[in-house]
Amino acid sequence: MDFSVLRNLISRYCAGEEYWVDSRTVYIGHKEPPPAAEAYIPQRYPDNRIVSSKYTLWNFIPKNLFEQFRRIANFYFLLIFLVQLIIDTPTSPVTSGLPLFFVITVTAIKQGYEDWLRHKADCSINECPVDMVQQGTVVRTQSSKLRVGDVVMVREDETFPCDLILLSSSRGDGTCYVTTTSLDGESSHKTYYAVPDTMAFKTEQEVDSLHATIECEQPQPDLYKFVGRINIYKEREDPIARPLGAENLLLRGATLKNTGHIYAVAIYTGMDTKMALNYQSKSQKRSAVEKSMNAFLIVYLCILISKAVINTVLKYAWQWSADHDEPWYNHRTEIDRERHVVSPPNHYTTHKARCHSKMNNQVTPCLTFTDSDKASSLSLTILPFSFSPSLSSYILLLPASTPPSIFSSLSQVIRAFTDFLAFMVLFNYIIPVSMYVTVEMQKFLGSYFIVWDKDMYDEELGVGAQVNTSDLNEELGQVEYVFTDKTGTLTENNMEFIECCVDGHVYIPHAICNGQILSAASSIDMIDSSPGGYRREHEDLFFRALCLCHTVQVKEEETVDSIKRGIHLGKPTSFYISSSPDEVALVEGMKRLGYTYLRLKDSHMEILNKDDEIERFELLHVLNFDSVRRRMSVIVKSSSGEYLLFCKGADTSIFPRVVSGKVEQVRARVEQNAVEGLRTLCVAYRSLSPAEYEEACHQLSDAKLALKDREQRLAQAYDLIERDFTLLGATAVEDRLQEKAADTIESLQKAGMKVWVLTGDKMETAAATCYASKLFRRSTQILELTKKRTEEQSLHDVLFDLSRTVLRQRSLSGLSVECQDYGLIIDGATLSAVLKPSPESSGSGNYREIFLEISRNCSAVLCCRMAPLQKAQIVKLIKASKEHPITLAIGDGANDVSMILEAHVGIGIMGKEGRQAARNSDYAIPKFKHLKKMLLVHGHFYYIRIAELVQYFFYKNVCFIFPQFLYQFFCGFSQQPLYDTAYLTLYNISFTSLPILLYSLIEKHISIEMLKRDPTLYRDVAKNALLRWPVFLYWTCLGLFNACIFFFGAYFLFDNTTFTSNGQMFGNWTFGTLVFTVLVFTVTLKLALDTHHWTWINHFVVWGSLLFYVIFSLLWGGIIWPFLNYQRMYYVFMQMLSSGPAWLGIILLITISLLPDVVKKVLCRTLWPTATERAQRVRADGVHEGSVSPATGPDPSPVAGGGGSESDMLCPARTCEGERGGEGVRAARTYDSMMSHNPNHLLSQPLDHAPSDGEGCYGH
Question: pTM of the entire structure?
Answer without folding.
Answer: 0.69
